[in-house]
Amino acid sequence: MGLIGEVLLLPFAPVRGSAWAIRQVLNEAKRIYYDPATVRDELARLEERLESGEIDEEEFDQLEDDLIDRLEIGMRGNAGTGDWTTR
C-alpha cells in the first residue's frame, strides 16, 4: 500500500492496532491450550479427581478423550508455533 493509502487509512489505525493485539492474545491462548505439558498436567489432575471420587468413570473417560485429542493436536504442532517445551 502506498503513502496515499496509508494516509487515507490513518483514522483506522486504532482499530488495526486493536485487532493485532486481539490476534496476539488469541494465538498465545491457543498455544497454551494445546501445549503438551499443559495437557499432561490436566490429565494428571483429572486422574487425581477420579481417584478421590470427585468424578465417576464415565465423566473421566469423556474428559480424558477430550484431553487426549488436545494432546494429539499439540504434538502435531498445529496449534501455534510448534515450538513446544517439555517438562
Layout: helices, strands, pairs:
Blueprint: H1 3-9, H2 13-34, H3 36-51, H4 57-76
Helix pairs in contact: 3-4
Descriptive overview:
Pfam families: GvpG. This is Gas vesicle protein. The radius of gyration is 20 Å and the shape is rod-shaped. The chain has a domain at 32-78. The longest helix has 22 residues, at 13-34. The N and C termini lie far apart (45 Å). The chain contains 4 helices and no strands. Helix 3 packs antiparallel against helix 4 (57-76). The chain has helices at 3-9, 13-34, 36-51, 57-76. Helix content is 75%, strand content 0%. It has 87 residues and is an all-alpha fold.
Which key terms come to mind for this protein?
Gas vesicle protein, 87 residues, mainly alpha, GvpG, 4 helices, single chain
Distance between the termini: 45 Å
Mean pLDDT: 86
**Range of helix content:** over 70%
Contiguous uncertain segments of 5+ residues = 80-87
Order of helices and strands: HHHH
Overview in brief:
By secondary structure, the chain is mainly α.
